[in-house]
Amino acid sequence: MKITDISGGVELRNGVFMPYLGLGTYQADNDQEVIDSVKDALDLGYRHIDTASVYKNEEGVGRGIKESSVAREDIFLVTKVWNSEQGYNTTLQSFEDSINRLQVDYLDLFLVHWPVQGKYKDTWRALEYLYETKKVRAIGVSNFLRHHLDDLLTDCNIVPMVNQMEFHPYLVQQELLDFCAENTIQYEAWSPFMQGKLFQLDFYKELSDKYNKSAAQIILRWNLQKGVVTIPKSVHKKRIASNADIFDFELSNEDMAFLDSLDRDERSGPHPDHFDF
């Protein structure tokens, strides 16, 4: 991944450009809170906005986009089909419901939110249809481990373009990263700060002093240098701005290796093999 500035990104396997830094909206209220955070992010130069059906804030995200000064075609908009909506026909309906709530005609990326056993292959067929009929520009999955991907790849016509996973220094999953890279599946991070838990670790003070950057900025820069697209969530304009201030420094190989070495297979969210929703 070539890292330049906030306008930079990666080219997905189908040639679609995906900005490597985006705004996550998980737990942002579907009111002025998410409207303002989307508008603030776009004003600050972000062009990637991530939401999901289950977040219950697609209406607010759509309003934020409409009220911003940025043209829809310049925004990379992502949402996800929720578990209870999975299956072929129900996924197609979920898509229609999402674009209606978002007040848009198409999505830039549509994801299968979790690998629901017995359903995700039918869900994927629906995403393939949406892609082939040009209602979405790219399709992908979220929370798919290697065995889920192996299973999907045996039957799919289109290889997922993105895999959005929990990713932070305590959960690196390098083998999965490598597998996705080998199959041209772009890795993307959710919960890059482990819901704030990583900020409490003492060693970040040393790194912060060394680079004159916050713990959040160091983690996000590590994400990008690992080749991982990242979508930190915030509803505060100063924090959204701070999260984008990561393009004037570079972590050394030694510090990258140190952050990699923290991996302990520890999650802040559910395990993809053991979720029950």
Structural features, described:
- The protein is of the alpha/beta class and 277 residues long.
- It has a single domain (9-205, 215-261), classed as TIM Barrel, CATH 3.20.20.
- 37% of the residues lie in helices and 13% in strands.
- It is built from 10 helices and 10 strands.
- It has helices spanning 32-43, 58-67, 88-102, 120-132, 146-153, 174-182, 203-211, 215-225, 237-243, 253-261, and strands spanning 9-11, 17-19, 23-24, 48-50, 76-81, 109-112, 139-142, 162-166, 186-190, 229-230.
- An 8-stranded parallel beta sheet has the order 3-4-5-6-7-8-9-10. The protein has a two-stranded antiparallel ribbon with strand order 1-2.
- The longest helix has 15 residues, at 88-102.
- It is globular and about 55 Å long.
- The relative contact order is 0.14.
Mean pLDDT: 97
Count of helices?
Answer: 10
What is the number of E strands?
A: 10
What level of helicity do the residues show? Answer: 25-40%
CATH class: Alpha Beta
What's the structural domain tally? 1
Can you say what the CATH homologous superfamily is? NADP-dependent oxidoreductase domain
Main sheet specs: 8 strands, parallel
Give the topology string: H per helix, E per strand.
EEEHEHEHEHEHEHEHHEHH
